[in-house]
Amino acid sequence: MKFGQQLQQEIFPPWRLSYIQYDVLKSELKQRQLAHDWTDQDEQDFVELLESELDKVYDFVTAKLNEVEARISYCERTIQTFMNNPSWSSDQNWNVMDEALTEVLFDVNDLAKFTRLNYIGFQKILKKHDKWTGLNLTQGFVPQLRAKPLDKQRFDVAIVFISSLHDICRLQGKPRTGNAAAGGDQNAFERATAKYWIHPDNVTEVKSIIMLHLPVLIFNKDKRYEPSDSAISSVYFDNDDFDLYTGRLQRDEGAEAIRFRWYGPMASNSIFIERKTHHASWLDGASVKDRFRLNVEEVPRFISGELSADAYADQLRAKGTDEKTIEGNHFIAKGIQTSFNEKQLKPVLRAFYNRTAFQLPGDQRVRVSLDTDLTFIREDNLDGITRRGPREWRRPDVGIDYPFSYLEDRDILRFPYAVLETKLQTHLGQEPPEWLTKLVDSHLVHEVPRFSKYLHGACYFHRDRMPLLPWWLSEMAIDIHKPRSTNFGLTRSKSFKPLIDGQYRRAMEQEERRMSIVADKANAENKNDNNGRIFDRNDDDMVMSPSPFDDPLMSSATLSPTSRQEPMPRSSSAGNTLIGSPVHTPSLAKPPVEPWLQAPPPPVSSSSSPAPSVFMADEEQGLKKKKKKNKKAKEDMELQELGEPVQIDKGSLRLDMQDEEKKSKGMRRLLGDKGPMYIEDPNNKGSMIPIKKVKIDPKVFFSNERTLLSWLQFCALLLTVALSLLNLGQGTSRIAGGVFIGVGAVVAIYALYRFEKRAWMINNRVIGRYDDLWGPAVLCALLVGALIVNFYLRFG
User: Fold this and answer.
1) What beta strand segments (E) does 111-253 contain?
2) Rounded CA separation 119/666 (Å)
């Protein structure tokens, strides 16, 4: 597909005028070429036009980003007010803020797509210019693109703050147990990993989807989050024969990968010495990653052997470190130093990326990381070019300033995709959450089993030395940008309202909660029927439908009623959660809600299937039956008022006239009254679900007036005939005229009565028949009767 067509298809309509005018630039380029040879004046005019478009796009992105930051700041201040004033901390207020943050998240996603699409547009038009004119404007336009960059992801900070505030709304200001830094110094990790590539167009959307289920993990919550906090740099070591590369590629028993890693800027003092081992012999064949920490000035001494493993253990012992940690770190340090001495390891490759990690603090069972701006940089001197000194273990001329424009092309490889990595502690029985399974099966990701950053970078720079190459190199030649085949992900309705997996967020959340309650009820009934038998995970009778907003480590089928009623114990302060706490669902901390109090499923639309009957719930009877849950019911009714409106097409909802006669007057209620209106759940006999009131279209009133005028026109015609018979006729004609006058008067009064009644029903939103069932039939009977009287008197 040509880029011009792609641009038109992917344009976000409300921002249409702010996109790059690609077709205009292309037309300008083509028309000048056809009119005459390209001149210096043409080049100057085209550059000015290009700069004008860049200014327009950049200013729009900057303004929108400032607007997003202002909205986030407003939400943060409002949430802080809720936390400081418990009287304002109601379910309704928390949900309003949660909805507001979701709206901001969608705008960030749209803005990221807008920026990406415009950046590609400028690259395309520059390339087309160079091809048609023979000039090199692509290189000459670099200063303008650096001054007003569109290629950098500038939305990570906003997503992190939204994640933090989103989590506080879920917890309703309550603190959560768990330390974000827990596991930061852990020296051994045993996890099952899977890796995926993500097209740059989908990066922000994938981040947003994960954020709705897992919080962005921030290790240091004492400082404000900065873009440099996500930077990770790793220097990989190997020898001249690339033995570690070959062992990892062939997955030999005990194959190692050794790297030195630091987080954040180059000034970071902590360097993590890491070793990945495939089928480690000391763990009964399990693959493991282990590591320990050194200060940056100690690294050269450790590589040379001046700082031995024993000396390092003595340092830890002097600091008061526990003996178990000392033994573990000593074992790792000794093994790595042995590999350095036996295999003559040297720095070979640096991998840089910005990582966004998603995880519950202190809980390693489920962890998802997303690496963007992945870049490979040469660290070796194998080609005769000196890139670092003999005592240096990393290049001093390279920082974390992506895209590293100052490096020569021979020293750098910018990976075109982001890398998604899922890590599950399957040895502890952890299964992948349902939402994660849906994500990795969607069009947004492309699975690449056993992808390795080191193997990819090393084979690129040293392909002539490699006897074997990774299998996924052939995948680089295909387009991993897949078309959207389902409603999964973040979309917008025709009215540009946010949709999650094709549904309004509130409707989806309430429906998932309703299904989880049904699952709990089914499990309880099954246990009673089987004398307390506990169902296995694979039992066919077990119903599981975890909410996409529930804790990702638990499903509704595994939660007891007690765990739903009582919040999990928490230790950290609420104030500390403003910048980086995890996501938790308020539904887990609430008692189960009766099915008849649940919110509606997705919007109702007309179909060929019979429409469910609608009736009004008797509030007094319902409250008498649910006295103990009166307070909870009231809160849920308030929540439902925040739901999206149900679009009711003609014929979608009807009033069952037979049931209406059987119902008491107390069961009938006007739509204008306070409280919800209920509809029978077709999937659950005997239970009801509420629906949202629909806004009245002004055309409904005009239709009512047109109906009245039609009846009055008929009356006027009838009265005209009657008056003619009275004034011009004699005897029998006058009697017939009098009968017609009576019929016309009755019809006019009846038409006025029906008009007023319909207007009252519309204003009060009464569910019922708006057509006239008996009026036309009675009118026909009166007219026929009048004609019979007239013929009888005339010819009888």
Assistant:
1) 188-189, 192-198, 231-238
2) 63
Q: Cβ(460)–Cβ(472) under 8 Å?
A: no
Distances (CA, A) of 766 to 607, 664, 670, 758: 23, 16, 5, 9
Q: Which one-letter DSSP state was computed for residue 354? A: E
pTM: 0.57
Q: Are 443 and 482 in contact (CB under 8 A)?
A: yes
CA 519 – CA 557 distance, rounded (Å): 6
pLDDT tens across 283-313, in order? 777 788 899 999 999 999 999 999 999 999 9
Please indicate whether residue 453 is annotated as part of the active site.
yes
Burial of 628 (0-12, 13-18, 19+ CB in 10 A): exposed
Burial of 678 (0-12, 13-18, 19+ CB in 10 A): buried
Token pair recorded at residue 289: 């990653």
Residue 636 or residue 79, greater confidence = 79
Strand partners, 295: 270
| Burial class of residue 658 (count of CB atoms within 10 Å of its CB; 0-12, 13-18, 19+) | exposed
- Amino acid 746 reads V
**Residues composing the chain:** 796
Task: Categorise residue 372: left if φ over 0, alpha if ψ from -120 to 50, beta otherwise.
Answer: beta
pLDDT beyond 80 at 282: no
500: tokens are: 């999650």
Single-letter code of the amino acid located at 486: T
Amino acid at 215: P
CA dist list (Å): 344 to 236, 237, 240, 315, 348? 13, 9, 8, 26, 12
Q: How far apart are CA 263 and CA 273, in angstroms?
A: 12
To which H or E segment does residue 490 belong?
Answer: strand 490-492
> CB burial class (10 A; 0-12, 13-18, 19+) of residue 579?
buried
Q: What tokens were used for 661?
A: 């006669």
For the chain, give the longest Cα–Cα distance.
135
**Cα distances (Å, whole numbers) of residue 47 to 42, 59, 134, 139:** 9, 18, 15, 13
Query: Which among 87, 76, 71, 99 has a CA at the least distance from the CA of 639?
Result: 99
User: Which residues pair with residue 291 across a beta bridge?
Assistant: 274
Is 221 buried (19+), middle (13-18) or exposed (0-12) by CB count in 10 A?
buried
185-489 adopts what CATH topology? mRNA Triphosphatase Cet1; Chain A (3.20.100)
Q: How far is CA 733 from the centre of its chain?
A: 79
Left (φ > 0), alpha (ψ -120 to 50) or beta: where does 646 sit? beta
User: In the predicted model, is pLDDT for residue 600 greater than 90?
Assistant: no
List the catalytic residue out of 195, 221, 453, 692. 453
pLDDT one-digit tens code per residue, 137-150: 888 888 888 888 88
Residue 377 CA to residue 495 CA, distance in Å, equals 46
- The long-range contacts involving 63-72, CB below 8 angstroms and separated by at least 24 positions, are 64/107, 64/111, 64/114, 65/111, 65/154, 65/155, 65/158, 68/104, 68/107, 68/108, 68/111, 68/158, 69/158, 71/100, 71/104, 72/101, 72/104, 72/158, 72/161, 72/162, 72/165
Is 417 in contact with 198 (CB distance < 8 Å)? Answer: yes
The Cα 692–Cα 358 span in angstroms is 35
288 membership: H or E segment, kind and range:
strand 286-295
d(CA 122, CA 112): 16
Per DSSP, the residues of 632-693 read HHHHHHHHHTTSPPP---TTTSB--HHHHHHS-GGG---TTSSS-EEEE-TTSTT-EEEEPP
